[in-house]
Specification:
This is Reverse transcriptase domain-containing protein. The chain is mostly helical and 294 residues long. It is built from twelve helices and six strands. The protein has helices at residues 2-10, 34-52, 70-76, 105-125, 131-147, 158-176, 185-191, 196-212, 218-221, 256-265, 269-272, 277-293, and strands at residues 14-17, 22-25, 64-65, 87-88, 90-93, 96-99. Helix 4 packs antiparallel against helix 5, helix 4 runs parallel beside helix 6 (158-176) and helix 8 (196-212) crosses helix 10.
Length: 294
Amino acid sequence: MLPLGNIIKKHNIDFHSYADDTQLYISVEPNKTTALQSLTSCLSAVTHWMSNNFLKLNENKTELLLIGPKDKREALLPSLGNLNQYVREQVTSLGVILDSDLSLKPHINKVTKTAYFHLRNIAKVRPFLTKPDAEKLVHAFITSRLDYCNALFTGLPKKSIEKLQLIQNSAARLLTKTRKREHITPVLAELHWLPVSYRIDFKVLLLVFKAVNGLAPCYIVDALSSYTPARALRSADAGLLRIPDAPPKRIGESAFSYYAPNRWNALPQHIRKAESIDIFKRQLKTYLFNQAYT
């Protein structure tokens, strides 16, 4: 992947490379198409390099996703030229379905459909399983899907989070054989399961802890910065993060660079100053559990 990386860098395009996938990122306005020209030139250079090395770009798996307001997306289409053939309404990136509005509705719908499919299968064998064995199945087939890349769910509409919460509620009822008319909150507390919204915060705060301690990728570290008071204050050594003066446009308060510092600074100092990831995770779960159920 090194030669490809060098080619892409020459065209000043941001990218991520994976085992069998390379993603390019550009920011462009409908009336300023210089970035599009760079993208077209980059793809031509990549195709030429692959041809010289007896390789071929798989056009069937080449996809282009336009992210932004609908009017700007539509205004940009005429400028895409040959790239129009690759435009998709949604694409899958590392198992997450991304759409042009970044609503994640298609992804949540897929998670919901898959989770209930597995819940029905688990329900068929539940009478023959002990509770610990049934819980293992629930975590393997349900919880893992609710937690996968759930840091992306920050700022989503309450309705979207509620769809995921209903999945967790159904899993808890199946596991504990709780009837539908019985209140589910005490059951979740007894299982020591964090509600979905708190699981999202748990993942976000874990990413922040890793970033603060040099354990996260650079693109996450670069999104955060330490808070430095103008004069000597106790807060200078409190492990706080600087909160941007205003949330980014469109994305608003759900942006990681805005949402994460707010949640991090609200934590007790002893949690922010945890000596290891294991200690941090244990203390953080206890803290969020108390917030959820007390």
